[in-house]
Amino acid sequence: MAFIQRLRNIKNNRKAKQLDALGVHHAQRFGKNKKHSEVQKAVVCLRRALALRQKGHPKRALSLLNLSRTLNKRFHTIGNSADLDERIHHLQEIVTLLPCPHIGYSSCLESLATALNNRFDLFSRQGDLEESVKYYRLALKRRTKRNSYRAITLYDLATTLHERYQQVGDQANLDEAIGYLREALDLRPEGHPDRLNTLDDLAIMLRAQFERSSDLPSFEEAFQCHRETLEASAEGSAEWAVYLSHTAAALNSRFIHYGNRSDLNDAISYYTKSLVALQEGDIDRSNCLDGLGVMLATRFDQMGDHADIDEAIKCHREALDCCQEGSPERPCTIGNLANALVARFDLHRNLDDLKESVKYHRSALGLRPMGHTDRSDSLDGLACALLHFSRETDGGDYLSEVIELCQESLRLRSVDNPYRPFSLHSLGSALHSRFLETKDPEKLEEAITYFRQSLEFLPKGAPDRPAGLIALSSALLARLQRVQRDCQRELEGDNKSARVKDEGEIISLLIEICTQGATVLPIRLNASFSWVYVAREFGHPSALDAYRTAIQLMDTSITVARVLERQHEHLTREVALGPESVSFANIVYDAASLAIEENQPRDAVELLEQGRSLLFNQLGRYRTSLDDLQDTNRELADQFEDLSAKLESSVVSGNKMSMSRDRSFDESGRYHEIWTEWRAVVDQIRAIPSFATFQGTTPFNLISRAAESGPVVIVNVSNYRSDAIIVLGNADTPIVVPLPEATPTYIQTLSDDLRDAMSSQPQQPAEEVTKQANIVAVLRKLWKAVVRPVTVRLKRDLHLPDRSRVWWCPTAMTWLLPLHAAGPYDGKQNFQDIFICSYTPTLGALNRSRQGLPVMDLSRESKRMALFIGNANAPGEAILTHLGDELAGIMKRIPDITILKGEKCTREAVLAGLDDHAWVHFACHGHQDLFRSDFALADGPLYLIEIIKKRLPLAELAMLSACHSAAGDHETPDEAIHLAGGMQFAGFRSVIGTMWSIWDVDGPLVAREFYQQMVDVDGNFKDCSNTAKALSAAVRALRKEVKIHGGGLERWIPFVHFGA
To answer: What 8-state DSSP symbol labels residue 491?
Structure first.
């Protein structure tokens, strides 16, 4: 019997050998011709061979190995997961059969780890990932540094650890993965076929480190890696396209951290270029489309462009079409499409979008069954869509399902899971919504509990902590408001104590957000607004500090935007302040009103200075002189001036700044880096005792110097209270004049009434009388509500002599009203008859106008003293027929004036002339359009933005005899974005402008009378501090002309003076 068995064994061994060889042969043929029949035959032969080599057979390991390799080929060809399961089973047996020192042992460990990783990609079972890491570690231990396969194992282990980091969130996994990948990169020098893929994965991991810790050096290194991969790959190739899409993802990470929209736009551009290079059917095209869709949806959230969300949905739909059934990326793509549909629903309120979103989220959830590591993501997405749906349909059943989904998501995420705080947050949000629906206080308490638990997992500095703080503060505010209602029903005692406790905690939470420098700036800014609302609404003593913080963050949020036009966009945004939406400027006015309520008028002035004219103030910081510092620390002063020049260049012109060759930052990233360096230099300067307040809030004792030549009257209009604040040069404390009638609504009404009256075009004498009566009615109301109380205080209490100078510093819509022209108009004196009036956007601007007076010899011998710029024939405009008379009147006093007229009046000639002359007279058409406001010259418009770029140390006086040259912007009147404001910023210490259109015939009269006052009969020029007085005389002459020969108030009212 033993002999017979031996014969059978010999026969089986021969047969197994033949079957094994035949199976390997068919597998090799499959590798060449890719015919499925070959791989099927190979599997059949190899299974039969294995069956003949029972456990204990010396060749069993070989059969297991051959079969596992062939099953791997069939799995990657057909995609049958059963093949992968069988392969893993066989590899596990091989590992137990081979002795540890065996030459193939490490390879088998690696193969087993890879197979487990493949199954994890397919089913997202965490156990497979853990086993994969274990076997990769065992393989690495057996591959010494001299082993040629070590780099492969290092790479595979690193990418698997990175995947585990994404699932579990353990920072140690990420750090370890980066370390292994660096070693692999060292083993793959330039020219190695796998170097670029290794670089690309290292960049992705470094980006993950940056996203977690906000470590900028990690991002810099990641971006350098991305740059190397792009430079080393052929532009337009599929490989290049993939690397470019990964670079786009890096830009998105930087955008999330710093909020620079240029990064977002560049990421969109990179994804778009990648798509051009990726052909239809390319496996990476779906991922690229999905990434582009996410970026477009993000830009929609930031900017609200309807086209972006439509295009995002289109990209996600196409990505879904490209993504094969069964692909592990498919659930993510479906979820992204569903999220975009929710965003579009919020825009158009089309219930079909919401229904489709719910459908897709349910589909994604179906592809992530119990045990799938990403199931919680789909649970949260579906919960969000259903929460919207419950609000639209008022269906409690939907909200019940939302809560169940959130509870399941929470159950799936263990205490150690890094994403558990998100599940806690989602459940808290659902319960908060249930409270809003049912007013059940128990649901609110549960929501607060979950929000608190979520925050326990998010230490200070964690990127997601601010969202949790905001959610908790919102829930606590809901409870506080409920308690307050109870208190109003005289249910004091415990309720009052609870109210005080909640109030204090809300404030503490919001303060934490505002003071965390690593928190995304928009979140800090919104938190400061919430702090302002809560503190003001409930009378908390921190209210003034809340306003100071909000104003400071508003200023910073403007500064970090790279281009001036985008900075202005920030100012026009409305922000949520409790149940209402208000502008940035309203925050400033309300802050001043609170300071006055608290009997701190000095603080009111400081807040108004800090929070208004933000754009010009920011540019002014870049032009700060540091002559005093040059003597003690020239290097620091030079560094400040160099960085300031680069920032100003970018902000004003948007030009690309020079980048060192070894840096990988794009234009926007480079701007932010320079801005950060600039802030650091400012901090160093502030550390010097004599520069402690450098670039900070200007103290009142310095601000008040603006009133040394006459009082400055700030008009602050707020919904809480309105006041005039009179700043005197010889007083430590400003004088507050309450203006109870000057409410924002009333001032807006006056502005609208004046605009309507001014825009009317009378055709009959009676209509002209009505127009003038309407204008007078506005001026009388303005006198009564604002100007008369100020006049009484100036005359009666301060004994200010007649014809003294007074500067108006309006706020809000009062900028659009001619305060200088207000009066009773009943035979008594109007304000302009009593005082000589000027305007200033801020007291700081007035102080800057006085610096260095006089700057040059004001004698007639100065041949380049004055410049006349005249253009009578602007395309599309009425001909200025009296321009020649205007020039003739000026030349009677200044015969040697430089003249740029007609064809000589070009932009280049005018800009050059501004550099060389102290006095400038513009006689041309002007237009108001923010930074595209312009003077109409012979070869086209000279825009305000071009004037702002100038630095004119010789500039003294600018007479802008052009329409709308001092017309404020209705959205941001405090910013003084008009031609007169631009001339003043460029260096002119005294500027005359016009609030609206002026008559062509009035230009010569005003110019003649004005220059008769400014230049004496001997040709001596007076300094520009006489400008307001000279304009007053010229306007009086025009008023007499109007009274004698006819005309209306609109002829003389528009002429106004800015500056010293």
So the answer is: -
